[in-house]
C-alpha cells in the first residue's frame, strides 16, 4: 500500500506496525511529501477504527525510523530532505519482539565467530604494525595487505597481481568506485532483469541509467547484450553481473555462459563489472566472468558475506588502463580502507581462522538449504551453499499481501519487486543466514503454510492471502 489517505481495509494485525508500514510506503511513493502534516492521533484513530494508543505507537515507530518528526503544539510532520530508500517491510522498536528476519542476506551467525574476533584482537595487540595506528597513506595499506588480498582473490578464481588490487571498506564502496570509473552521467549500465537492491540507488546517485537485458535459466543472454550495445543511440558503457549466487535468482552461471558473456562484452566494447560478494562460499564453481576478459573487467569480492558481517573489507581487481582512475575515485570517496579491519582479516587468513569459518559456513548453509527445499516442497530456487532462496509465486500474486501475512506471524521477507529492473514475475527472497536454526525452521513452516497448494489454491477462503 503506497496510497494516502489509508483506509480501514489497509490495516492488518499487529495494527500499529501495519499503520507505520502504510505511512512509510506513502512517504516512499511520494503520496506523502516532506513537510506534510499527519492527522492528529485522535482523528486518525477514529477514521481507521483504532485506539489512540495504537496510532501513537505507530507514530513513535516512524519517529525512530527518522521518517517523521513530532512537534509539541503543532503536530507530526513528514521529515524533509532527500530519501533514497525506506526501511520496509517492518520497523523494529526497542520494546517490541523483532520478527524472524529472512529479508537480509547475511552469513550464519556461527558460535565461533565472536571468539575468533576476541582471539584475533589479542594476538594483534601484541604485535600491531605502526602504520595501522598512524598511517594516512592509502598505498601503505595496499602494500601491507595486497598479498593477502591477492591470495583471497585466487581462491575465487581471479589471479591478479597485488598492485592491481584496491582494498576497500567492503563491497559497496568497491561497487561505487567501479561505476564511477567507467561511466559518465547519462550513460547506461546493462544488468539482468533483476539485480542487487543497492545498484539502483547507486546509479541514481551517479545519474546513470539501468538497462535490463533479457535472460533465461542460465543467466543473461549474450546475444541480447550484444544487440542492446549495437542499438542506435545506445549509451551502454558497462555490464553489471552477479553470476555466482548472490543475485536475486540465487543462480550460479555455468562456465560456457560466462565465456559467452565475456566475449559479448569484449566485442561490444563494454566494461565488465562483476560483483562476487559471496566469494568462495560455493566450492568448485566456474571461474569468474572477469577471468575470461581481465583486460576490461572490474571484479570485486569481500569478506562480510562469507566470514563475518563485521569484517567489512573488499577487494577490487582492476585492469591496468583503469588503475589510476580507480585509485583516484576511491581517494575522493573513501580515501583508504580501515587498516585495523585489514589487519584482523590478515590475521584470520594467516592463522587458518578464515578457512575454518568458511568451511563451517558451507556446512551450515548446506543444511539450511536442504531444510528450505524440504519445507518449501521444492518450490524455491538456489544452490546448495547459498545465503538465500528465490521463491517464485503464482502469476498475479500480490507480493506485499503475502509479506504482510508473514509479518503478522513475525516473519520478515523481501519482495521480488524490490530487485526488478524490467517486468518480473512475483517472487520472494528468503534469506537463510540471519536466524537461528530453530527460528529458521519455524519461519519456513510459516511461509509454507501461507503458500498455495499443488492445485494453486490459497489457504483460507480467498484466492490469495490478504
TrEMBL record:
CDD domains: AAT_like, WHTH_GntR. SMART domains: HTH_GNTR. PROSITE patterns: HTH_GNTR. InterPro entries: Aminotransferase_I/II_large, HTH_trans_reg/aminotransferase, PyrdxlP-dep_Trfase, PyrdxlP-dep_Trfase_major, Tscrpt_reg_HTH_GntR, WH-like_DNA-bd_sf, WH_DNA-bd_sf. GO terms for molecular function: DNA binding; DNA-binding transcription factor activity; pyridoxal phosphate binding; transaminase activity. Keywords: Aminotransferase, DNA-binding, Pyridoxal phosphate, Transcription, Transcription regulation, Transferase. Residues 13-81 form the HTH gntR-type domain. It comes from the Bacteria. In the C-terminal section; belongs to the class-I pyridoxal-phosphate-dependent aminotransferase family. This is PLP-dependent aminotransferase family protein. It comes from Paracoccus alkanivorans.
